[in-house]
Structures are given as structure tokens and as C-alpha cells.
Automatic annotation (TrEMBL):
Domain of life: Bacteria
Transmembrane segments: none
GO molecular function: hydrolase activity, acting on carbon-nitrogen (but not peptide) bonds, in linear amides
Lineage: Bacteria, Thermotogati, Deinococcota, Deinococci, Deinococcales
Protein name per Swiss-Prot or TrEMBL: Putative amidohydrolase
Record-linked PROSITE patterns: CN_HYDROLASE
Keywords recorded for this protein, A-Z: Hydrolase
A Pfam family matched in the record: CN_hydrolase
InterPro entries assigned: Aliph_Amidase/BUP (IPR050345), C-N_Hydrolase (IPR003010), C-N_Hydrolase_sf (IPR036526)
Domain CN hydrolase: 77-353
Recorded coiled-coil stretches: none
Record has Hydrolase as a keyword: yes
């Protein structure tokens, strides 16, 4: 992560606060190399907290919000061939092949697609990577941390071990306290096309399961990406007394292009006003929203946007807005885009940022840390007890339970690699005897070996 730009706004308005919260939104850039190992992931995540450090307040709760699906590329950990793939789809395909027998076994046993099966197979490892890094950072920096989101199932406790419950995998947000304990989980309800059956095949969460989490950092409602655009989610969270809306985001597409989810036909920044900004202006209880957005070209997919911290218009009277939209009140902090210009110039700049554009501007996005003080009234909600699947995750965070791979999955993975070596050696022997099929077996064995080991 390059040294980011930063912005801070005191958030002073008409509200007579009984508490003030420092809210921080981090706009990082991601690259495939950040997910090659747990340690590289830790370095990338820690850099985001380190860049937030100058904005942390010593005398009030600090709330740091990270971006959507920042745990997704952990699926590629250890899959060296997949990490070198030219496209995201091919990278996922090569990862499925690397874990072929285990993925196929899970797909048949659970009756799910291969992408879903891969995520179920790797869930214990991915969860251990994601949760341990997020817990450690929340503790180290003493912050309330919305770690972002990751493709995770629900876990249940069996003795001192977490096991996957069912066959569902959610785009799941993880909220952790400064002590490293779980505050709560939130499953995204409204999925994009890329998250649906034709893509990652994630499972939609249930609207009724979305909760507001009462914390010293505010009554926090989580509306991941598209959820923040949907009236049913905002109404549901507002009715529960949410005071701060958290909208982690990963917008897959040029920021100055056209909107990608129905209804279509508008410029993307114009459509974005229907999420956090509109939710805060219209809601009764939601006073603020924190919307961090990840940027960067991941394989052949561009991710871009302008992170923002939003308030009621009366509390943020300065006129400003996203590019390609008219200035307006309601932004406490807003990350400028990479350039200014006419709509045509901005649209061209967005294409130049994209993968394989060949332009000087390719992948030269802007990173940022935004901060604002949020005056809040006295707490009106008591914390809710953790649900069973949250208790399981909290047990792991506190070191009371372990995340371990299914022994059957481990065995199948080992057999896959041994099969490749066996076929390779058999083919080599046949080649030595000048048998024609020996070359075919040698090539097949070499392919299985390379894919299984690399």
C-alpha cells in the first residue's frame, strides 16, 4: 500500500453528543502478491492499520472499517500457478484443479457447484488466516475493527473444534472489539451477478438475521456493498436503532463507467449516491455511514471507487460529491478520484486505469485514509448475546477452539499429489520401453503433479 492521502473532519453539527467516536475508512490497493501467504496477508492488512495510526484518537473509541471481500483472494494461497493466471476466472479454475479430489468429493457430497465446494474445502484454512490476522490487529491498535468481509460458512463448535455447518458460504462481515473478541457477524443479503450462481456461487444471507450491534463506537449496522442500496436492508437496520451504517465495498468495474447492477443506465458515481449517502439522509436513526472502497487491478478485473464518510446534510454542510455528480451537503470526508475533467475525460481515465490498458495510468489508483469524529447520543441498546455460529468464531478468536481441515480433505489432497507422481513414473517407464502410451501418461502425470503441488 502506497503512502495514502488522508482527510479528517471534526463532524460538528447541531447534535449535543454524550459521546464522540472517531471513524476511519481505509481505501487500500490490493495485488495478488498480498495473498500468497498468511504472512503477506498480515503485512497488507497491518499496513492499512498503520496508515490509520496518525488518525487514532487517544480519548474516544476508534472505529476502523476495511473493505469488502478482502479475504476472497486467500483462496489462492499456496496455488502458485493460479496466482500467475491472466484472469480471475482462470485463477479460480486452477485453484479448483489444485484441490481437485477434495473439491469434487465435497461437490458430490454436498450437492453444490465446484466454486462453492472449493470455498467449503478451504473454509477452515481461510477462516484461520482471516480471523487470526484481524483479531491481532484489533488488539494491537486498540480499535473496533470491521475487518472487511470474506467468503465464509457458518461454523459450529464440536468440543474444542470448529466445523462447517451446512453447505452455505456467505459474503460475511466480521466485527471485532479492541480486546480481540467477536462483536458479531453479518451475511450479505443482496448478491451481485459475480457473487451469484454464475460466479462465486455465494449464498444470500437472510434479512431477518441482520442485527444492529450496540458498542461504545455506536449502534453499528452493516450493509455490505449492494445491501446499502436496498431499501429493505436500510429500513430493517434503521428500525433496530442503528446510528452508524458500515458499508464495506469492492466495486468490480471502472468507477467512471456505467452502473452494473439493475437498474442500469446511469454513471456509476451517480448510482452510488443511492447507497450510504441516501440512506443517511432518509433514515430516522442512522446518522452516519462509513463506506471504504478497495482499488486496484486484480488479475483482469478493475476495482475502483471513492471512499466516503457520510452524515446528515445539516452536520456536513460543505458542498462536494463524487465525480460526475453535482456537489451536495452530507459528506464529512470524501476521497478525491484520480483526476478531474469532463465526463468524457473521466470515462477515458477510468479505462486507462483498467487491466491491460497499456496506458501510463494503468493500475495507478489512489489509496487513502479518511477520518471523522461522529457525535452520538447516549446508547439506547444493550448488546445482544452471540448466536451459536458467532460463539464458535469467538471461541477461535479467544483461543478456546481450533480450526482444522477435515481429515478426509487432507487425505484426498495428499492422494492427488501422489497420483500425479505415480502416473508420471509409470509413463516414464513405458517411454523407456518405447510404448506410445507412455508419452501420454508422462504428460498427464506431469500435469497432475504440477497442478497438485503448485
Amino acid at each position: 500500500m502506497r503512502t495514502p492521502s488522508s482527510s479528517i473532519n471534526p463532524g460538528i453539527g447541531r447534535l449535543a453528543p454524550s459521546r464522540v467516536v472517531r471513524a476511519i475508512a481505509v481505501q487500500p490497493q490490493w495485488r495478488v502478491r498480498d495473498f500468497r501467504s498468511r504472512e503477506s496477508f498480515r503485512v497488507w492488512m497491518r499496513a492499512q492499520l498503520e496508515h490509520s495510526r496518525p488518525h487514532l484518537a487517544p480519548d474516544r473509541p476508534n472505529l476502523v472499517v476495511l473493505t469488502e471481500l478482502n479475504g476472497l483472494p486467500l483462496l489462492l494461497r499456496g496455488a502458485r500457478m493460479a496466482q500467475r493466471a491472466p484472469t480471475l476466472d482462470l485463477a479460480l479454475g486452477l485453484t479448483i484443479i489444485k484441490h481437485g479430489p477434495a473439491t469434487l468429493y465435497c461437490a458430490m457430497r454436498q450437492r453444490v457447484s465446484l466454486p462453492r465446494a472449493l470455498q467449503l474445502v478451504l473454509a477452515p484454512r481461510l477462516a484461520a488466516d482471516y480471523l487470526s490476522v484481524s483479531r491481532d490487529l484489533a488488539r494491537e491498535y486498540g480499535v473496533y475493527l470491521l475487518a472487511g468481509t470474506a467468503p465464509l460458512p457458518h461454523f459450529v463448535l464440536q468440543g474444542s473444534r470448529l466445523v462447517v455447518q451446512g453447505s452455505q458460504v456467505y459474503n460475511q462481515a466480521v466485527l471485532i472489539s479492541p480486546e480481540g473478541e467477536l462483536i458479531g457477524l453479518a451475511d450479505k443479503v443482496h448478491l451481485t451477478t459475480g457473487e451469484g450462481p454464475s460466479g462465486l456461487d455465494l449464498s444470500p444471507g437472510k434479512l431477518a438475521d441482520l442485527r444492529v450491534f450496540a458498542t461504545p463506537a455506536g449502534e453499528l449496522g452493516i450493509a455490505t456493498s449492494l445491501d446499502a442500496f436496498r431499501e429493505d436492508v436500510i429500513t430493517h437496520l434503521d428500525a433496530q436503532g442503528a446510528s452508524v451504517l458500515l458499508q464495506p465495498d469492492a466495486n468490480a468495474g471502472p468507477w467512471t463507467g456505467m452502473e452494473q447492477e439493475p437498474p442500469t443506465g446511469r454513471n456509476q458515481p451517480e448510482a452510488w449516491l443511492d447507497s450510504a449517502w441516501a440512506a443517511v439522509q432518509r433514515a430516522r436513526n442512522i446518522r452516519y455511514a462509513v463506506n471504504p472502497m478497495v482499488v486496484g487491478n486484480l488479475f483482469d478485473v478493475a476495482f475502483d471507487g471513492q471512499s466516503a464518510i457520510v452524515a446528515k446534510a445539516s452536520q456536513a454542510p460543505q458542498l462536494r460529491s463524487y465525480v460526475m455528480t453535482e456537489p451536495r451537503a452530507g459528506f464529512l470526508a470524501l476521497q478525491p478520484w484520480v483526476t478531474q475533467g469532463t465526463p468524457e475525460e473521466l470515462r477515458r481515465a477510468g479505462l486507462e486505469l483498467a487491466p491491460r490498458s497499456g496506458a501510463v495510468r494503468e493500475n495507478r489508483y489512489r489509496t487513502a485514509v479518511l477520518a471523522a469524529d461522529l457525535p452520538l447520543s447516549a446508547p439506547i441498546k444493550s448488546p445482544l448475546p452471540l448466536r451459536p455460529f458467532e460463539e464458535a468464531v469467538n471461541g477461535y478468536l479467544l483461543g478456546r477452539a481450533a480450526l482444522r481441515q477435515d481429515p478426509a480433505v487432507q487425505t484426498l489432497g495428499a492422494l492427488w499429489r501422489l497420483l500425479g507422481v505415480g502416473v508420471l513414473l509409470t509413463g516414464a517407464r513405458l517411454v523407456a520401453r518405447r510404448r506410445k502410451r507412455g508419452l501420454v501418461l508422462t504428460l498427464l502425470g506431469a500435469s497432475i503433479t504440477v497442478l497438485g503441488w503448485f
